[in-house]
Amino acid sequence: MIRNTTASWGSLARAFHWGLGITIIGMLAYGWWMNHIPARADKFFYRSIHADIGYLVLLLTVLRLVWRGVNPTPTLPADMPSWQRIAARINHGALYAVTILVAMLGWAHSGSRAQDYSSFFGLFHVPQITSPDKAAADAYEGRHIFFAYVLLALIVLHLAAVAFHHFVKRDRVAARMIGAGEAGPAR
């Protein structure tokens, strides 16, 4: 089933979730590594790959939001307290917003560098949204890194909620994202 239902996420929503989730965690780790390796002659290459994947993350996040907007969202358990429902909505919204913000700040950083990261895997050039400016490049990079850490904190919170639902509440909230939403109660 490709489309979502009120009981479960569809296969496309799950593919977006897992593909983007793994890619974003990989990008956070790769970004940390890039900023902590000693200065090297090929540093531009590593940053360029990071930028190329970042452009893909931005595009796929927007497509994921469009898909989510035209599909039903699985309902939360009726016995879930309202504060948990609100927290879930805030965390999901923040995950989307901060993912887009981090990608946009990276894109702005690319264009503000004298040697930008506009070449998309050598296939074509991504139009840049800023002009070369050293002070702006430093500011965009600093904000990009700061919000990447904010994104990491939101991911940790999301994973903590997943563990709570799966291991403590033993409801099917987490299982729906692996395609087990229609099954009976967790065992």
Automatic annotation (TrEMBL):
Any single Gene Ontology cellular-component annotation: plasma membrane
Main location: membrane
Membrane topology annotation: Multi-pass membrane protein
Family matches, as Pfam families: Ni_hydr_CYTB
BP GO annotations: respiratory electron transport chain
Stretch forming the signal peptide: none
Membrane-crossing residue ranges in chain numbering: 12-33, 53-70, 90-108, 146-168
Protein name in UniProt: Cytochrome b561
Cofactor(s) annotated in UniProt: heme b
Entry keyword annotation includes Heme: yes
Domain Cytochrome b561 bacterial/Ni-hydrogenase: 9-179
SUPFAM superfamilies given in the database record: Transmembrane di-heme cytochromes
GO molecular-function terms, A-Z: electron transfer activity; heme binding; metal ion binding
Localisation: Cell membrane
Presence of keyword Membrane: yes
Domain of life: Bacteria
Protein family membership: Belongs to the cytochrome b561 family.
Keywords recorded for this protein, A-Z: Cell membrane, Electron transport, Heme, Iron, Membrane, Metal-binding, Transmembrane, Transmembrane helix, Transport
